[in-house]
C-alpha cells in the first residue's frame, strides 16, 4: 500500500456501510450523502462525489486522511463489523443506562372533545387529593438524586383538570429541586382551553418545552372530525388561542392525515400563514391509525404507510416553498428506549393512581392497569396483567424479519411497540415513513437549509431546482 494511504482499520478491510443513502439533491450538480447509523450528512458536488465513490470502491488507493473522514462519518466501516448488532447494542445498552423518571401523567381522562378517530373512551375521572399524594410520594420514592424527571401532560384533555395539573406541577418542581434534578415538561392538548391565564402560566415555567395542538384542516374539515363533546365546532376557538400565544411558548402543530382531509391541507397551510402564527407554530403530520377498538372502522379512510409518506413529503415541500419552517429535523439514530412504554423509568399514570405503560391504555379501568400507586408511593401490582407488564420490560424491537434488511433500521428500530406487537414477526414492524421517503426528506432538508443560508437581497442565486 502506498505511503500515507489506508484501506484497513485495525487490519480489517473497509467496505461501504449498509446504511448509506446517496441521492441527488433538489439542485443540479449536488449529491447528498447520509448515513442512518451515524446521522452524518453532507452535500457535495457531483465531481466530489465521483471521487468519493471511487475512493469507497478502492480505499487502498486513497490518502489516509480522506479514508479517515469517511470512516469517522460511518460511510466506510470494517468488513467484520456487524452493523445491525451495533444498532441492537445501542438500543439495549442505552436503555439499560437510562436514569430518572419518564412519566406521562393524565390529571383527567375526561375530554371536552369527541373526535371521530380518537383511541380513548373518556370516563369522567379526575385526579383526587389522594391521587396527588400518591403520585408525589411515588416520585419521591423513585427519583434518584441528580436524575432527570420528564413529564408529559396527557388526557383526556389535561387542561380540563388545570387546577390538579398546576398543583402537581408545583409539587414535582419542588421534589426535583430538592434532588438536584432537571425537570422538563411537555403537554398534549386539543388547544381549546388554552386561556390567557394558562398560556401565561406555562410560558413562565422554566422547564416547559412546549405543547402539541392538533388542527386537521380548514374549519369545515377540522370541525367535522374534531368537534366538542356537545357537537360544537372548535376550529375558530383553537385558532384564536394559537394567535394569543404570540410566541410565548413553542407549539408543535399536529395535522392528522387520512383520505378525508389530505387534499385540503394546502388550505390550512395558507391559513397558518395568513393568521400570522407561523413564527411560533411548527407543523408536522400524524397518521390516523386504528390504534384501539375505540377508533371505530377507519379502514376505508386510513392512508397506507406508503401513501402517508408520499403525502408528508408533498405537503412539507409546499410549506417550505411558501416560507414555512415545519418540524423537519435531520433524522438522527437514537440509543435507548423508544417511548415511555419500554423506558426503565417509564409510567403512564391516570386518575386513581393507575399505572399503565402506553398512552393507548390511559383511560382504561383499574382492572386493566398494571398497578396502582398507594399512598406511600409503592406499587400494588395487578397479577392479571403480569404477563403484559413483562412484555414491556423485556421488549425486543428486533424480532420482525423484514426489519433485518431495512436501511433505516437505526432510525426506526421497529417503530411503535404497541403497533409492532400486532404484526406477524415474518413481516415488518410498525414502519416509519422514512422507509419510503428518506431520500425525498433529505432533499427537502437540504432545500430548506440552502434557502435559509442565502442572505435576503444577496447576489448569489439559488441553483436551478430540478424537482
From TrEMBL:
InterPro entries in the record: 4Fe4S-binding_SPASM_dom, Aldolase_TIM, rSAM, rSAM_sf
Keyword presence, Hydrolase: no
Alphabetized CDD domains for the sequence: Radical_SAM
Cofactor dependence: [4Fe-4S] cluster
Sequence ranges assigned to domain Radical SAM core in this UniProt record: 95-329
Keyword S-adenosyl-L-methionine: yes
Keyword tags: 4Fe-4S, Iron, Iron-sulfur, Metal-binding, S-adenosyl-L-methionine
Name of the featured protein: Radical SAM protein
Top-level taxonomy: Bacteria, Pseudomonadati, Pseudomonadota, Alphaproteobacteria, Maricaulales
Amino acid at each position: 500500500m502506498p505511503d500515507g494511504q489506508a484501506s484497513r482499520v485495525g487490519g480489517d478491510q473497509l467496505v461501504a456501510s449498509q446504511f448509506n443513502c446517496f441521492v441527488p439533491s433538489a439542485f443540479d450538480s449536488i449529491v447528498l450523502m447520509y448515513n442512518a447509523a451515524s446521522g452524518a450528512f453532507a452535500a457535495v458536488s457531483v465531481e466530489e462525489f465521483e471521487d468519493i465513490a471511487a475512493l469507497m470502491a478502492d480505499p487502498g488507493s486513497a490518502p489516509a486522511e480522506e479514508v479517515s473522514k469517511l470512516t469517522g462519518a460511518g460511510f466506510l466501516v470494517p468488513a467484520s463489523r456487524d452493523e445491525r448488532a451495533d444498532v441492537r447494542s445501542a438500543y439495549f445498552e442505552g436503555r439499560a443506562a437510562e436514569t430518572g423518571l419518564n412519566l406521562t401523567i393524565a390529571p383527567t381522562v375526561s375530554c371536552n372533545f369527541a373526535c371521530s378517530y380518537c383511541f380513548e373512551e373518556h370516563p369522567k375521572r379526575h385526579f383526587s387529593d389522594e391521587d396527588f399524594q400518591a403520585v408525589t410520594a411515588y416520585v419521591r420514592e423513585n427519583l434518584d438524586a441528580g436524575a432527570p424527571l420528564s413529564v408529559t401532560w396527557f388526557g383526556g384533555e389535561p387542561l380540563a383538570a388545570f387546577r390538579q395539573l398546576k398543583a402537581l406541577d408545583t409539587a414535582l418542581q419542588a421534589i426535583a429541586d430538592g434532588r438536584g434534578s432537571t425537570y422538563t415538561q411537555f403537554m398534549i392538548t386539543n388547544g381549546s382551553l388554552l386561556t390567557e391565564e394558562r398560556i401565561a402560566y406555562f410560558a413562565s415555567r422554566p422547564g416547559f418545552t412546549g405543547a402539541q395542538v392538533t388542527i386537521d384542516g380548514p374549519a369545515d374539515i377540522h370541525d367535522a372530525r374534531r368537534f366538542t363533546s356537545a357537537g360544537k365546532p372548535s376550529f375558530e376557538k383553537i385558532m384564536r388561542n394559537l394567535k394569543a400565544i404570540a410566541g410565548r411558548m413553542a407549539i408543535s402543530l399536529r395535522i392528522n392525515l387520512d383520505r378525508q382531509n389530505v387534499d385540503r391541507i394546502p388550505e390550512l397551510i395558507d391559513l397558518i400563514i395568513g393568521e400570522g402564527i407561523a413564527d411560533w407554530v411548527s407543523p408536522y403530520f400524524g397518521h390516523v391509525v386504528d390504534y384501539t377498538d375505540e377508533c371505530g372502522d377507519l379502514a376505508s379512510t386510513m392512508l397506507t404507510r406508503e401513501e402517508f409518506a408520499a403525502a408528508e413529503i408533498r405537503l412539507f415541500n409546499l410549506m417550505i416553498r411558501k416560507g414555512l419552517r415545519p418540524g423537519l429535523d435531520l433524522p438522527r439514530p437514537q440509543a435507548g428506549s423508544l417511548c415511555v412504554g419500554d423506558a426503565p423509568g417509564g409510567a403512564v399514570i391516570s386518575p386513581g393512581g393507575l399505572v399503565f405503560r402506553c398512552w393507548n391504555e390511559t383511560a382504561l379501568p383499574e382492572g386493566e392497569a398494571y398497578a396502582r400507586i398507594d399512598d406511600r408511593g409503592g406499587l400494588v401490582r395487578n397479577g392479571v396483567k403480569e404477563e403484559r407488564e413483562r412484555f414491556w420490560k423485556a421488549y425486543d424491537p428486533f424480532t420482525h424479519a423484514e426489519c433485518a434488511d431495512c436501511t433505516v433500521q437505526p432510525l426506526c428500530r421497529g417503530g411503535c411497540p404497541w403497533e409492532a406487537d400486532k404484526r406477524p414477526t415474518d413481516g415488518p414492524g410498525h414502519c416509519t415513513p422514512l422507509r419510503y421517503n428518506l431520500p425525498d426528506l433529505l432533499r427537502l432538508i437540504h432545500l430548506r437549509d440552502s434557502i435559509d443560508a442565502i442572505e435576503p437581497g444577496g447576489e448569489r442565486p439559488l441553483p436551478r431546482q430540478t424537482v
